[in-house]
Amino acid sequence: MKWSEISIHTTQEAVEPVSNILHEAGASGVVIEDPGDLTREWETAFGEIYQLSPDDYPEEGIILKAYLPVNSFLGDTVDEIKGAISNLITYDIDIGHNHVTLSEVNEEEWATAWKKYYKPVKVSDRLTITPTWEEYEKVSDQELIIELDPGMAFGTGTHPTTVLCMQAIEKYMQEGDHVIDVGTGSGVLSIACAKLGAGRVLAMDLDDVAVRTANINVKLNKAQDVVSIRQNNLLKNVDETPDLIVANILAEVIVRMTDDAFEQLNPGGTIITSGIISAKRNLVKDALRKSGFTIAEVIEMEDWLSIVAEKPEA
Question: Total domain count for the chain?
Answer without folding.
Answer: 2
